[in-house]
Amino acid sequence: MVRSNDRGKPDTLRIGDVARQADVTADTLRYYERLGLIEPAGRTTSGYRTYRRAVVDRLEFIRKAQALGLTLEEILEILRVSAEGAPPCEHVRSTLTQRLHELDARLADLRALRRTLSSALDRSAKMPLADGCVCGIIESRESPATKPLAAARRRRPAMRGTRKERS
Protein backbone atom coordinates (compact mmCIF):
# COMPACT_ATOMS: atom_id res chain seq x y z
CA MET A 1 0.00 0.00 0.00
CA VAL A 2 1.32 3.46 -0.92
CA ARG A 3 0.45 6.18 1.58
CA SER A 4 -0.13 9.81 0.58
CA ASN A 5 0.77 13.03 2.34
CA ASP A 6 -1.58 15.99 2.85
CA ARG A 7 -0.78 17.35 -0.65
CA GLY A 8 -1.95 14.16 -2.31
CA LYS A 9 1.57 13.02 -3.24
CA PRO A 10 2.65 9.57 -2.15
CA ASP A 11 4.93 9.52 0.91
CA THR A 12 6.71 6.56 -0.61
CA LEU A 13 7.74 5.72 -4.14
CA ARG A 14 8.31 2.38 -5.78
CA ILE A 15 11.82 1.56 -6.93
CA GLY A 16 11.03 2.24 -10.60
CA ASP A 17 9.61 5.68 -9.81
CA VAL A 18 12.68 6.63 -7.76
CA ALA A 19 14.98 5.34 -10.49
CA ARG A 20 13.20 7.43 -13.15
CA GLN A 21 13.13 10.60 -11.03
CA ALA A 22 16.81 10.27 -10.08
CA ASP A 23 17.92 9.04 -13.52
CA VAL A 24 19.56 5.91 -12.14
CA THR A 25 18.78 2.25 -12.55
CA ALA A 26 16.95 0.06 -10.07
CA ASP A 27 20.19 -1.93 -9.78
CA THR A 28 21.96 1.26 -8.71
CA LEU A 29 19.36 1.80 -5.99
CA ARG A 30 19.77 -1.73 -4.69
CA TYR A 31 23.59 -1.32 -4.79
CA TYR A 32 23.47 2.00 -2.91
CA GLU A 33 21.16 0.40 -0.37
CA ARG A 34 23.64 -2.47 0.19
CA LEU A 35 26.46 0.06 0.67
CA GLY A 36 24.40 2.09 3.14
CA LEU A 37 24.27 5.23 0.97
CA ILE A 38 20.47 5.22 1.06
CA GLU A 39 18.09 3.91 3.69
CA PRO A 40 16.83 0.38 3.19
CA ALA A 41 13.59 0.21 1.25
CA GLY A 42 10.34 -0.72 2.85
CA ARG A 43 8.14 -3.34 1.23
CA THR A 44 4.56 -3.29 0.12
CA THR A 45 2.36 -6.23 1.05
CA SER A 46 2.99 -7.58 -2.44
CA GLY A 47 6.77 -7.31 -1.96
CA TYR A 48 7.60 -4.17 -3.98
CA ARG A 49 10.41 -1.99 -2.66
CA THR A 50 9.24 1.44 -1.55
CA TYR A 51 11.43 4.39 -0.69
CA ARG A 52 10.69 7.62 1.10
CA ARG A 53 10.58 10.66 -1.16
CA ALA A 54 13.75 12.02 0.46
CA VAL A 55 15.80 9.31 -1.26
CA VAL A 56 15.56 11.32 -4.51
CA ASP A 57 17.30 14.25 -2.79
CA ARG A 58 19.93 11.87 -1.37
CA LEU A 59 20.60 10.50 -4.87
CA GLU A 60 21.03 14.05 -6.19
CA PHE A 61 23.55 14.71 -3.40
CA ILE A 62 25.45 11.55 -4.35
CA ARG A 63 25.50 12.57 -8.02
CA LYS A 64 26.85 16.05 -7.15
CA ALA A 65 29.51 14.56 -4.87
CA GLN A 66 30.58 12.17 -7.62
CA ALA A 67 30.83 15.11 -10.02
CA LEU A 68 33.45 16.53 -7.63
CA GLY A 69 35.42 13.32 -8.03
CA LEU A 70 34.43 11.75 -4.71
CA THR A 71 34.19 7.97 -4.52
CA LEU A 72 31.17 6.20 -3.09
CA GLU A 73 33.30 5.24 -0.10
CA GLU A 74 34.13 8.92 0.54
CA ILE A 75 30.49 9.93 0.08
CA LEU A 76 29.45 7.28 2.60
CA GLU A 77 31.93 8.72 5.11
CA ILE A 78 30.53 12.24 4.54
CA LEU A 79 27.01 10.97 5.12
CA ARG A 80 28.16 9.17 8.28
CA VAL A 81 29.73 12.35 9.67
CA SER A 82 26.55 14.27 8.88
CA ALA A 83 24.32 11.59 10.48
CA GLU A 84 26.36 11.93 13.68
CA GLY A 85 25.25 15.56 13.83
CA ALA A 86 28.54 17.17 12.85
CA PRO A 87 28.75 19.43 9.82
CA PRO A 88 30.87 17.46 7.32
CA CYS A 89 32.16 20.48 5.40
CA GLU A 90 35.65 20.43 6.95
CA HIS A 91 35.91 16.73 6.16
CA VAL A 92 34.77 17.46 2.59
CA ARG A 93 37.31 20.29 2.27
CA SER A 94 40.08 17.95 3.37
CA THR A 95 38.95 15.21 0.99
CA LEU A 96 38.69 17.62 -1.94
CA THR A 97 42.15 19.02 -1.16
CA GLN A 98 43.56 15.49 -1.24
CA ARG A 99 41.71 14.80 -4.50
CA LEU A 100 43.18 17.98 -6.02
CA HIS A 101 46.71 16.88 -5.06
CA GLU A 102 46.07 13.48 -6.63
CA LEU A 103 44.75 15.12 -9.78
CA ASP A 104 47.82 17.39 -10.01
CA ALA A 105 50.08 14.33 -9.70
CA ARG A 106 48.14 12.48 -12.41
CA LEU A 107 48.32 15.51 -14.70
CA ALA A 108 52.09 15.65 -14.20
CA ASP A 109 52.28 11.94 -15.03
CA LEU A 110 50.20 12.49 -18.16
CA ARG A 111 52.39 15.42 -19.27
CA ALA A 112 55.45 13.20 -18.85
CA LEU A 113 53.77 10.44 -20.85
CA ARG A 114 52.90 12.94 -23.57
CA ARG A 115 56.55 14.03 -23.81
CA THR A 116 57.61 10.37 -24.01
CA LEU A 117 55.08 9.60 -26.75
CA SER A 118 56.03 12.68 -28.72
CA SER A 119 59.71 11.78 -28.48
CA ALA A 120 59.02 8.19 -29.58
CA LEU A 121 57.06 9.41 -32.58
CA ASP A 122 59.80 11.86 -33.53
CA ARG A 123 62.41 9.08 -33.27
CA SER A 124 60.25 6.68 -35.24
CA ALA A 125 60.04 9.03 -38.21
CA LYS A 126 63.81 8.76 -38.57
CA MET A 127 64.04 5.00 -38.01
CA PRO A 128 64.14 2.39 -40.73
CA LEU A 129 61.79 -0.56 -40.41
CA ALA A 130 63.63 -2.99 -38.18
CA ASP A 131 64.13 -6.64 -38.91
CA GLY A 132 64.67 -9.13 -36.11
CA CYS A 133 62.60 -7.34 -33.50
CA VAL A 134 58.92 -6.91 -32.76
CA CYS A 135 58.89 -3.12 -33.12
CA GLY A 136 61.89 -0.84 -33.20
CA ILE A 137 59.89 2.14 -31.93
CA ILE A 138 59.22 0.37 -28.66
CA GLU A 139 62.45 -1.56 -28.38
CA SER A 140 64.62 1.52 -28.96
CA ARG A 141 63.09 3.19 -25.92
CA GLU A 142 64.97 2.95 -22.64
CA SER A 143 63.09 1.04 -19.96
CA PRO A 144 61.24 3.43 -17.66
CA ALA A 145 62.37 3.60 -14.06
CA THR A 146 58.80 4.07 -12.82
CA LYS A 147 55.31 3.46 -14.07
CA PRO A 148 53.56 6.80 -13.45
CA LEU A 149 50.08 5.91 -14.71
CA ALA A 150 49.92 2.64 -12.79
CA ALA A 151 50.91 4.51 -9.62
CA ALA A 152 48.18 7.10 -10.22
CA ARG A 153 45.55 4.39 -10.59
CA ARG A 154 46.52 2.87 -7.23
CA ARG A 155 45.90 6.14 -5.37
CA ARG A 156 42.08 6.01 -5.50
CA PRO A 157 39.85 3.45 -3.83
CA ALA A 158 38.21 1.10 -6.31
CA MET A 159 34.67 1.40 -4.92
CA ARG A 160 32.47 2.58 -7.77
CA GLY A 161 28.82 2.77 -8.78
CA THR A 162 27.19 1.11 -11.72
CA ARG A 163 28.17 1.97 -15.30
CA LYS A 164 25.36 4.54 -15.50
CA GLU A 165 26.62 6.14 -12.28
CA ARG A 166 30.11 6.56 -13.68
CA SER A 167 28.96 8.32 -16.85
Key terms:
Multidrug-efflux Transporter Regulator, Chain: A, Domain 2, 5% strand, mainly alpha, 57% helix, 3-stranded antiparallel β-sheet, 167 residues, 2 domains, elongated
Mean pLDDT: 82
Number of strands: 3
What structural class results from the helix and strand content? mainly alpha
Residues in helices, as a percent range? 55-70%
Uncertain segments: 1-6
Q: H/E order of the elements?
A: EHHEEHHHHHH
β-strand amount: 5-15%
How are the strands of the biggest sheet laid out side by side? 1-3-2
Describe the structure.
Strand 2 and strand 3 (49-52) form a beta hairpin. A three-stranded antiparallel β-sheet has the order 1-3-2. Helix 1 packs parallel to helix 3. By secondary structure, it is mainly α. The two termini are 35 Å apart. The protein has helices at residues 15-22, 26-35, 54-67, 72-83, 89-125, 136-139, 148-154, 163-166; strands at 12-14, 42-43, 49-52. The model is unreliable at 1-6 (pLDDT under 50). It has two domains: 12-67, Multidrug-efflux Transporter Regulator, Chain: A, Domain 2, CATH 1.10.1660; 89-166.
